[in-house]
């Protein structure tokens, strides 16, 4: 035995050390307290919810456009001549009333033309009377027949009267009047300047009504009751609009209504156009209006649409994947539900079906949704208040 140990002591010694260490470790492990393995309880996720309530909702449509005047025309000279007088209102931005004379062309030549035309009328009438007298004598056999001469004299008299009427009309045209109240957009001539027939004198626009041309997509038309360019536009008068813009750093609102639908689809962008109107945009009849709705201003317009019953209005954060929401069931577990979305905007979503009164809709972001996820519910009073205000 000694010989065996002596001959194999090189590997028996390490083996003995390992066995002794294992035995000591086993004794220590068995002598210690027994460790209890616990499975942690799942923690409920805290989510904010709003309560679904059906309501009657007036849908609104938003569009944009540029403010234009109902009438905007170019003033042109109908006669050649020198500008004799210029109204104080004929300046860029100047106000004028209907019938005001903005410019007057020197009328001397046209007054003389009227005098000459009046003299020609007198001569032609006198000649006509002579011819008629001689025709009466000819009928009695004292002179040859004079019917042809009478007809010629009548023609000359009519021509003379026409020239007189033209001279009077030209004389009136030397005073350039406007048919509506408005403002001057820009002027092109000044006092003493000679102008030719058809020359541009300036551009003016009316101030009684402002018009805004609004593009509407086919999707937006679903929420409006519009005649699409057929039939009468009278029903549009009751369609209210609210015009918004920022002027001088302040948000301003004007109220108006739709006036008409244009009768064709724009071939470039495939949209329809409606025209909204705002009365007295410059506040000339309403001194309480502080900010005018000026021509050329780019504005946002909100149009009142159809009234729909039984619609659930939710915060925009409640919508998932375009047509799904998360509903908290009676056991406080999240369930995904498909709904029918009527329309959405930046703040809200309108659901027409798929929900029931009293459903609790999750409005908190869920990073990893699992069907049946246990949650702790917190009523989002701020979102409820916001929905109530809207």
Task: Please render the helix and strand layout as text.
Elements: H1 2-7, H2 9-31, E1 45-51, E2 54-69, E3 72-76, E4 81-86, E5 95-96, E6 101-105, H3 108-139, H4 147-173, E7 175-177, E8 182-187, E9 194-195, E10 200-206, E11 209-216, H5 218-221, E12 240-247, E13 250-261, E14 272-279, E15 298-315, E16 324-328, E17 334-338, E18 340-344, E19 348-353, E20 360-362, E21 375-379, H6 381-389
Helix pairs in contact: 3-4
Query: What's the total count of β strands?
Result: 21
Q: Describe the biggest sheet?
A: 6 strands, antiparallel, barrel
**Which radius of gyration do the C-alpha atoms yield?**
46 Å
The CATH homologous superfamily of the largest domain corresponds to Efflux pump adaptor protein, beta barrel domain
Total helix count? 6
Strand content: 35-45%
Q: Can you tell me the CATH topology of the largest domain?
A: Elongation Factor Tu (Ef-tu), domain 3
CATH architecture of the largest domain: Beta Barrel
Shape: rod-shaped
Share of helical residues:
25-40%
Mean pLDDT: 82
Which stretches are low in confidence, meaning pLDDT under 50 for 5 or more residues running?
Answer: none
Query: Between the first and last Cα atoms, what is the distance in angstroms?
Result: 101 Å
Kindly give the count of domains. Answer: 4
| Order of neighbouring strands in the sheet with most strands | 2-11-14-13-12-15
């Amino acid at each position: 035995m000694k010989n065996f140990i002596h001959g194999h002591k090189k590997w028996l010694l390490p083996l003995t050390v390992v066995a002794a260490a294992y035995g000591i470790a086993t004794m220590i492990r068995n002598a210690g307290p027994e460790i209890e393995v616990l499975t942690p309880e799942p923690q409920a996720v805290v989510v904010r919810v709003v309560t679904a309530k059906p309501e009657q909702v007036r849908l609104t449509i938003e569009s944009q456009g540029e403010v234009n005047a109902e009438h905007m025309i170019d003033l042109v000279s109908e006669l050649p001549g020198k500008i004799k007088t210029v109204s104080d209102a004929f300046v860029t931005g100047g106000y004028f009333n209907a019938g005001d004379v903005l410019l007057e062309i020197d009328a001397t030549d046209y007054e003389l033309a009227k005098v000459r035309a009046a003299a020609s009328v007198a001569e032609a009438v006198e000649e006509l009377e002579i011819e008629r007298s001689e025709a009466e004598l000819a009928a009695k056999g004292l002179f040859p027949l004079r019917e042809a001469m009478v007809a010629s004299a009548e023609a000359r008299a009519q021509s003379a009267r026409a020239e007189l009427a033209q001279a009077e009309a030209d004389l009136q045209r030397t005073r350039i009047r406007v048919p509506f109240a408005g403002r001057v957009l820009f002027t092109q001539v000044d006092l003493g300047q000679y102008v030719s027939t058809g020359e541009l004198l300036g551009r003016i626009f009316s101030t009684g009504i402002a018009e805004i041309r609004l593009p509407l997509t086919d999707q937006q038309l679903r929420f409006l009751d519009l005649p699409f360019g057929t039939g009468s536009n009278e029903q549009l008068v009751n369609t209210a609009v609210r015009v918004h813009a920022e002027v001088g750093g302040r948000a301003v609102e004007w109220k108006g209504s739709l006036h008409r639908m244009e009768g064709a689809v724009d071939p470039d962008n495939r949209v329809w156009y409606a025209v909204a109107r705002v009365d007295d945009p410059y506040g000339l009849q309403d001194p309480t209006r502080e900010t005018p709705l000026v021509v050329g201003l780019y504005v946002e317009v909100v149009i009142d649409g159809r009234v729909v019953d039984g619609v659930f209005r939710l915060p925009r954060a409640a919508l998932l994947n375009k047509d799904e929401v998360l509903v908290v069931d009676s056991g406080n577990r999240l369930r995904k539900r498909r709904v029918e979305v009527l329309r959405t905007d930046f703040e809200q979503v309108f659901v027409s079906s798929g929900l029931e009164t009293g459903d609790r809709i999750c409005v908190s972001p869920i990073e990893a949704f699992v069907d049946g996820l246990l949650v702790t519910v917190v009523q989002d009073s701020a979102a409820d208040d916001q929905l109530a205000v809207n």
